[in-house]
Amino acid sequence: MSTTMTFKCPCCGGYLEFDPAQQKFKCLYCGQVLSQSDLIEESEKREAEAEAAQEEQTRSFTDKKLRGYHCQMCGAEIVTEETTAATRCYFCHSPVVLHDRLDDEFRPDGVIPFQLDKETAEKTFMDYISKKKFVDRGFFNGAQLEMFSGVYYPWWYADIEGEGVFSGEGTRSSVMTTATHIITTTRVFSVERKGRLSFRNMARKALMKADGKLSDGIHPYDVSAVKPYASGYLSGFLAEMRDVPEAGAKEEMIREAQNYAASMMKGNHSFNSLSGSASFTPTQVKTRYVLLPAWVLTYKGGKDGAPYYYMMNGQTGRVCGKLPIDKKRVLATALGVGLAVFLLLCGGGAFIW
Ligand SMILES: [Zn+2]
Ligand SMILES: [Zn+2]
Question: Considering the entire predicted model, what is its pTM?
Fold first, then answer.
């Protein structure tokens, strides 16, 4: 059995949730609002308590893979997936943060708290699907808004600095026409380029099961708003812990930086042709593990029961969705769209349709 945290109201004992509209804790029973400094203080207190409780248990009981938890409000056992880090009790619906999944090496460095609340997410979604001409009207009804969840997803970020070197050959040709000849002169230059390059805020998803295309679609996030991690931000939301190790993510981001560096060093020149090889050696790599907010709607639709998804960036409102397309509507409009059953539709307010 592992340790859980529930944030309780000091006035009535009800549970506290993070409220995106006020950026504060809110009690759903008595309406009490606690400040952000209370939130951080309370987070530290709860984390210390959870840690003490954990130390009392033998190490074998705190295996991160163990799935059972007890709700502090009603005592019910909560069963979760291996990567769940915050959820709700099935019985009393109180928000639960699974402390042991976010401690030690799994403690996030930062979090972007939700800025947009559920109401805004629902409204944006309704606007979004009403503007999509080819979306199957029958696919969605109001009741499904119930399934809208606010989820914190784990991401790796990296800042990479390093030295780029290019070595190769460039050519410049000129053509001269005389009465009897056309003379082409080609001059060949040896080209050496060298420079310090830095890449900021490169991002990689840190949860394997997360849909990469969909979550890339709601990027970017404004990372200047990243706050130091405090567990209180998670109260009332779902959260996933990372299952992608730092080393793997780091390696991929370095490779990506190397590709960018190579194309930068081979580009932007005044030769007619330039060939050669570029290399990039990182001198400093800083990684951060950050939780990012997203409103997510998963809906099983169509005759085959295939899942459709809709995601909204919980900070900026950028949306991305995979929605069922009504084939008849597409045909009736006689556009060369083809018989796509669904399309991936992303955008930051300016939609294609
Ligand atoms: Zn209260
Ligand atoms: Zn409960």
Answer: 0.82
